[in-house]
């Protein structure tokens, strides 16, 4: 089953697009963020206001680009960017506050039962907010 959707052993740098049924994509995305991502509140360097950031990390640029395209389409996001930290072999797919709120609402839909508690604790503050 796993090989049929596009996952494979030693996938880190080889991963590309996957065949995730649309009805499961929000759960798949939540699992990716829980495993290889972050939901953080940080102070803006200039204004010192809190800002929400959602990130997903991957060693595969093809997978990162595919995820960005799928997230933008399904969660109805407008922005997003890919950042590569210096001296790292990883790509960081990042979203600003407005898009992060949309993604959070998409991932933590009404009735969702499985999630990483420490990331949900941050996300739940934004579930009732307008993006």
Task: Provide a quick synopsis of the model.
This protein is of the alpha+beta class and 131 residues long.
Describe this structure in words.
The chain has a four-stranded antiparallel β-sheet. The chain is globular, with a radius of gyration of 15 Å. The chain has five helices and four strands, in the order ααββαββαα. It is an alpha+beta fold. Strand 1 and strand 2 form a beta hairpin. The longest helix has 15 residues. The model has no long low-confidence stretch (mean pLDDT 89). It has a single domain, classed as Endonuclease I-creI (Roll). The N and C termini lie far apart (36 Å).
Sequence of secondary-structure elements = HHEEHEEHH
Find the CATH topology: Endonuclease I-creI
Please indicate the percent range of residues in DSSP E strands (runs of 2 or more).
15-25%
Return the CATH class: Alpha Beta
CATH architecture: Roll
Number of helices: 5
Question: Kindly state the mean pLDDT as a whole number?
Answer: 89
Low-confidence stretches: none
Count of strand segments? 4
- The radius of gyration over CA amounts to 15 Å
Helix content: 25-40%
Main beta-sheet annotation: 4 strands, antiparallel
Give a quick set of tags describing it.
four-stranded antiparallel sheet, globular, Endonuclease I-creI, 39% helix, 5 helices
Write the layout of secondary structure elements.
Layout: H1 2-5, H2 22-36, E1 37-43, E2 50-58, H3 61-74, E3 81-83, E4 91-95, H4 97-107, H5 117-123
Antiparallel strand pairs: 1-2, 2-4, 3-4
